[in-house]
Design brief:
The protein is mostly helical. It has helices spanning 3-16, 25-42, 46-55, 67-77, 83-95, 109-120, 124-138, 155-160, 165-171, 176-179, 183-207. Bound molecules: adenosine-5'-diphosphate (ADP) and nickel (II) ion (NI).
Length: 211
């Protein structure tokens, strides 16, 4: 492994080892792995994709005291990366987050790759597991039919409004398949999406006493 990549890997691993809201080190490892696969299939700059995947959650408002402080930390961490690639990586991590779904589409191929890699980890069996851990950490219920599914959320209502784990599937996760940027990302999302639909059908059948 390239020395810069190995230093950044070590730093992020230590920092996120015990993070409990679904952004732990293993999430980062999986996103890096998806990013490598998708970057290869799409002919993207794999160094930029891998490093952006490694640092993509450091400026997230759930982990950093503020996005600005998180971005400063990332800039320090990337001081040995050449300026053009460093700026590209910073731009990628500032632009890929979902935050209610109303953000502009990302523009560079590498941003598309990393966004797809992160989104793949939000769907399928892993996505289901992360949703319930996140909802639990936030104090949300598994399901409450009286809480309606929201659409057109601002970043603020997306984060702070009342929701449930099951509603999160309808507010975000079931849309991700259509929002994938790359051909490889779309392909990998298909089966994970079907698995979530299967899970939700079974969930609602059990809830209603049909199974
Ligand atoms: P975002 O891009 O929306 O900020 P993250 O990737 O930071 O989402 O979210 C981390 C994980 O927690 C993802 O698997 C995501 O789907 C899940 N998650 C985010 N918000 C909620 C929520 N309100 N309820 C349940 N799971 C959530
Ligand atoms: Ni992430």
């Amino acid at each position: 492994m390239n020395e810069i990549v190995s230093t950044i890997t070590h730093y992020v691993k230590q920092k996120l080892e015990n993070e409990g809201s679904g952004h732990d080190w293993h999430h980062i490892e999986r996103v890096v792995q998806h990013a490598e696969v998708i970057a290869k299939a799409e002919g993207a700059n794999d160094f930029v994709c891998i490093v952006a995947a490694l640092v993509h959650d450091l400026a997230d408002d759930k982990i950093a005291p503020s996005e600005a402080e998180g971005l400063k930390e990332v800039e320090r961490l990337l001081e040995d990366v050449n300026r053009e690639e460093r700026e590209h990586i910073i731009e990628i991590i500032s632009s890929i987050s979902f935050k209610g779904g109303n953000r502009p589409p990302v523009t560079t191929l590498e941003a598309q790759v990393v966004q797809d890699a992160d989104r793949l980890d939000a769907i399928g069996a892993i996505g289901i597991a992360r949703t319930f851990v996140y909802a639990g950490a936030k104090g949300d219920l598994i399901h409450d039919p009286s809480i309606t599914v929201r659409d057109n959320m601002t970043p603020e209502t997306y984060r702070s409004g009342q929701s449930t784990a099951i509603n999160h599937f309808y507010e975000k996760l079931l849309h991700l398949k259509e929002l994938m940027n790359t051909t490889k990302g779309k392909e990998l999302a298909q089966q994970r999406h079907k698995f979530m639909e299967h899970f939700l059908n079974q969930f609602h059948d059990e809830w209603a006493g049909r199974k």
